[in-house]
Amino acid sequence: xxxxxxxxxxxxxxxxxxxxxxxxxxxxxxxxxxxxxxxxxxxxxxxxxxxxxxxxxxxxxxxxxxxxxxxxxxxxxxxxxxxxxxxxxxxxxxxxxxxxxxxxxxxxxxxxxxxxxxxxxxxxxxxxxxxxxxxxxxxxxxxxxxxxxxxxxxxxxxxxxxxxxxxxxxxxxxxxxxxxxxxx
Length: 184
Hints:
The chain is of the alpha/beta class. It has 7 helices and 5 strands.
């Protein structure tokens, strides 16, 4: 069954407005992503600047951000961490041609929720973004992290909290990575 057939059997309609931000320092990649996603039912913003993306995200209303890993000035995983702190409800997707062990380990630490490898499959990319957006509509998102950890959070409690988050969300992240690689 192709992805197009899956969309017919299970339409991925979205129940609210979404904004997706694309961040990549390569203009040809941004152009290809815009072309691939231009008919999708969400607002699409694209930039080569991580700082501009952060400004958009800090203004609120961004549902998903897709980040390139290798960018000058700020790598994608660093940007994902900053997005998580400012806007934990924003889904963080890493788009990379170099999905090595360090990325997997960092992704499992909860800053990156999904990994898509370059080159991507257009149908799989569209379907995955819609699935993530639709799932986000029904999944409660974690609150923003406080500026300082409350005194009641011991280092053990913090570690347990992070381990539970990783267990719940880490498996989905790995499955998504493997599925995207197989979709090509």
